[in-house]
């Protein structure tokens, strides 16, 4: 039996909100639009880029949403090139939880609205790449909460939905987990409130990463 734990990235593994907010603000300014507040930006973390921008700029046309997504990417990678990116730290206890699950024989994956390049940078930076057997991003799949990227993780890991847990901080993650027939596990340290995660169908919401291994072992 293959036991698979799939993690979201932003807001679940790492705290990346500062850089996401700065890049989103820059793309709005480039398009001569008033940037949304940071609370609004945090609400869309986890979605793929164009659907996220469409929620933040509903009056703009689809072509402008695509152009703004390109502007966001340029702003983000300009920050990386000039080394002005803020740190994107792992949340407290995440590294230890990943090691505990890995040592217990769990296969690990990531399903994220980030790009392949962005996810690769995060995992390399924190020395976690070797711990994950399957990585799927918005570059190759529809936006969450569509279950495609999670289903791809399950297939690639040789698991089944009944032995898979999806761990995330937003209602988009939980809705994706429910749609894929997996165990939906919320985390309380990210960008959506615990009551929203429960409302979306979370089986449990953990308040610290150290609680994840025991919870998953009990599934």
TrEMBL record:
Matches recorded under Pfam families: HAD_2
GO cellular component: cytosol
Top-level taxon of origin: Bacteria
SUPFAM superfamilies: HAD-like
GO BP annotation list: DNA repair
A GO MF label: phosphoglycolate phosphatase activity
Keywords for this protein: Hydrolase
Coiled-coil regions, chain positions: none
Descriptive protein name: HAD-IA family hydrolase
Native species: Sphingomonas tagetis
Origin organism lineage: Bacteria, Pseudomonadati, Pseudomonadota, Alphaproteobacteria, Sphingomonadales
């Amino acid at each position: 039996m293959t036991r698979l734990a799939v993690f979201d990235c932003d807001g679940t593994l790492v705290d990346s909100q500062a850089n996401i907010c700065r890049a989103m603000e820059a793309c709005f300014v480039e398009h001569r639009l008033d940037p949304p507040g940071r609370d609004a930006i945090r609400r869309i973390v986890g979605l793929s880029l164009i659907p996220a921008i469409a929620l933040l700029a509903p009056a703009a046309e689809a072509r402008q949403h695509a152009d703004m997504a390109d502007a966001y990417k340029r702003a983000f990678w300009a920050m990386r090139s000039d080394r002005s990116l803020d740190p994107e730290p792992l949340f407290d206890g995440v590294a230890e939880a990943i090691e505990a699950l890995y040592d217990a024989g769990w296969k690990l994956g990531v399903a994220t609205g980030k790009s392949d390049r962005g996810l690769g940078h995060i995992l390399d930076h924190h020395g976690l790449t070797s711990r994950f057997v399957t990585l799927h991003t918005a570059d190759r799949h529809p936006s969450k909460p569509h279950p495609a990227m999670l289903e791809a993780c399950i297939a690639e890991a040789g698991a089944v939905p009944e032995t898979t847990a999806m761990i995330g901080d937003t209602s988009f993650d939980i809705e994706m987990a429910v749609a894929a027939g997996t165990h939906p596990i919320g985390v309380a340290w990210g960008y959506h409130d615990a009551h929203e995660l429960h409302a979306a169908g979370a089986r449990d919401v953990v308040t610290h990463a150290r609680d994840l291994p025991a919870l998953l072992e009990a599934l």
